[in-house]
Amino acid sequence: MTPRHRESDTTVIRGPITKQGSGLVRWAAVEAVARYRGGAPIKDTYRRIAQRKGNKVARVAAARKLLTLVFYGIQDGEIRCLKAAA
Known about the structure:
By secondary structure, the protein is α+β, with helices and mostly antiparallel strands. It has one domain. It is about 65% helix and about 15% strand.
């Protein structure tokens, strides 16, 4: 679930989420956000984006944030944004 990124010299174009990677992981992350909107960092992201762009786009954005938190939690052994909020 990475955003499309095209770059040429000084021009950068950022696009929507690409469909590269595991479809099963993408599905599980979006379902996790759809069923349980998460704690403070994920819920805030979901609500903010849902107001502007709609529920479906917000689910994918929140799922990406969830996967980012999981990645850093596995890599470092702690999730820093949750520790600072507590």
